[in-house]
Amino acid sequence: MDRFLVKEVQCSVCTTVQQAQQTCMECNVTFGEYYCDICHLFDKDKKQYHCQPCGICRIGPREKYFHCEKCNLCLAGDLRGNHKCVENVSRQNCPVCMEDIHTSRIGAQILPCGHLLHKTCFDDMVQTGAYRCPLCMHSAWNMEHNWEQMDKEITQSPMPTEYQDATVKIICNDCQTHCTVPFHVLGMKCTGCGSYNTAQNGGLIRQSQEPQPQEPEQQPQSPVPEP
Q1: How far is 119 from 145, CA to CA, in rounded Å?
Q2: Which helix H or strand E contains 59, and what residues bound it?
Q3: What's the whole-number average pLDDT of the chain?
Q4: Which of 2, 62, 184, 185 has the smallest CB count inside 10 Å?
Q5: pLDDT (tens digit, 9 = 90+) per residue, 100-132?
Q6: What single-letter DSSP state applies at residue 112?
Q7: SMART domains per the record (predicted)?
Q8: Segment 167-186, tens digit of pLDDT
Q9: pTM for this one?
């Protein structure tokens, strides 16, 4: 049902049909502790408020949220000036479940890159071991501790001799740096930001083998004629 098109309601107590409003005009029963005359939403009091730019009611309280004009979304107050704006970000579907985010009753998780996921989808994604935004591949949280652990694992796991001098070109998903780094099966570290969230760009580059010096060939000597 499209709540915005609701014009009349029927009281379940006295069955009176009347214009949509918060209390019954006949028996004065309250239809809902909260009522929005735009969304025609009847609900228990959850500190809801109607956001005009969003076009819907949201659970508040209002003073703890603000509407970001560029993101076109209500965000927690502590994110004011402290988040990466992505234009109309909530008008995209969740990249995990492909369901709507803007009108969803499920909370949204804001990633460092600015993209949104349903909070439940984000939790499920983390449980599978995924750590990157499904849209842009940027790390979904601070991974510094993980990169330090990766440094230790790589130090303790040297590559076989034939690969120790091999390098590879990479692109960093976190800072977009293009660089050439030592190849390792566990991961390639960005020289720009230290992230292992990188993608290989091309095949292995092996160092050219220096030619081994060859001893000069012994020329056969002619017998010296006797005098």
Answers
A1: 23
A2: strand 56-59
A3: 89
A4: 2
A5: 998 888 888 999 999 999 999 999 999 999 999
A6: T
A7: RING
A8: 999 999 999 999 999 999 99
A9: 0.70
